[in-house]
Specification:
By secondary structure, the protein is mainly beta. Helices cover 9% and strands 55% of the residues. It has an 18-stranded antiparallel beta barrel. The longest helix is centred in the first third of the chain and has 31 residues. The chain is globular, with a radius of gyration of 22 Å. The N terminus is likely disordered.
Amino acid sequence: MNCPYWYKYTFSYSLMAGAWRQSGTWAEIRMQKVICILLLFSQAVLSFGTALAEQNRDIPQIHGGLETTMELKYRANEKLYKLDFPLYGSLQLLYENERINTAVSLDYIGESGIGEIYLLGGKEYSYMKIGYYASDWGYGYSISPLGSLNIIDDRYPSNIFYRKNYLPHPCFTMTVGSQRFHQQTVFTNREKNIESVKDTDLGLRAIWNENGSTVSLGLIRKLGYPPPLFFLTVENLGDLGNLWIELCWEYYKTSRDIWSFVFGVKRELSSAVLCAEYVMDGAQNFIFLEEVFLFNPSAQFDLKGFFHIPDMSSAFNGSIPMSVERNLVFEPGFYLFLGKKDKYFSPLKEDNNNSIYFKLKYSF
């Protein structure tokens, strides 16, 4: 496991235009003003940070980005169209030296707030980290049962393609060992209202690295309550591609246990990347497929798909990211949900909205 030296954070603003008939000039003008202000601010911050970094390598670094989208959704359950203008971004202040890493971020999603903040001290495989951040122990690419250490960030869209966006929370992590073998302990408070130390989540795991393979074994549970979640994860980086396995057992003393399983493989070719994953998340079973075709160094086609095995409904996300400049990416795409009424991916189910979108990303 590599020690995390930087994270991406969220600084976002959402402009909701309402139903299709309500998408008027006011929303477009307001969005243009916000984008211009943020672009000017980010460019000023970038120039200032670059000048300081040239004078002293220990000066804090500034990272960030902006992401604006125009998305036309069709809500089948309400029989209406909706035009949304969400705007996401990031603003992070990072300081590093040989012993200490610190990060502070701002967060604006509907209202101003603070994103991830942490202080990390130590070496790559022996360190302590404390602050306000998310901890993801899972290897699952599309869905990970070990995301149970975190709460899904409901400020983002709720469809299945956004499942791995987690909210930061008070957290303490301690790692001791070497690259070949190290142990990790985490204490987290995921819930907003913690009334007792018994509500704190505890995670323990041991990690072995050997010849391109990583194996971890551990458990997650609340200090005062069952059930414990036992897990085993394996990742192998070979010449033919990457392979990962995630097995979770949630033990209940007085009721039926819950098993979760993830098996995935990823292969990189000269002009394509192929990924396949089987996910058993409790009572739900999915097959996830992704194909990325590289047209040229600045453009690609990415198609993701979920297939819900019990009822054979499906969901797709297709996009064409194109690099306009070094730090600017334009991405048209779509979300498509296929399934009859009462099926898992039925468009009549809440948040399964068929849509087309045009996204613009800027990073610095």
